Amino acid sequence: MNEAQSLQRAIDEPVHLAEYDPAWPARFKAERKRLLERFPAALIEVQHIGSTAIPGMPAKPIIDVMAGVASMAVADFLFEPILDHGYVTSVEFNAGLTDRRWFMRHANGRRTHHLHVVAYDGKLWRKRLAFRDALRTDAALAERYAALKRELALRHGTDREAYTRAKGEFIRCVCAS
């Protein structure tokens, strides 16, 4: 499979949840180190977010990384250098985002990492960490989210955007409390 085929396969990859893998935190740490070595002056903080950051949580086996920068202007400045560092993205998709820039790494036709570059300690930064931390500390809440994710993966297995949108209300409720 060539690079173009691998990318297209990763883009079209269906929603598939894997059981929690204890190797996910190490994969995050390796990517965090790689990013901080490449962008030491620009990245204020790098955090593991998403379901792979929640012990025991089923997840799409894609490491979600959130990198905090001083402003969205810095995120835009990093856009091309991040692409040169092994990530890909959709310019059109990012044009519709006001609070983050989104990138993806892939290998062998599978997504391996999502990188969300956001304003450090801004609203989105705090919201994503609050959601992660709520799931890490409340086992019953985490189980409800896991059940929802399983149901939605069955319902929206071929539509990643619908799957993500369908989780939105649960996430909003957790972050509002």
From TrEMBL:
Lineage: superkingdom: Bacteria
Pfam family membership, one: GrpB
Gene3D superfamilies referenced in this protein's UniProt entry, alphabetically: Beta Polymerase, domain 2
SUPFAM superfamilies reported for this sequence: Nucleotidyltransferase
InterPro entries per record: GrpB/CoaE, NT_sf
Protein name, entry field: GrpB family protein
Species of the source: Billgrantia tianxiuensis
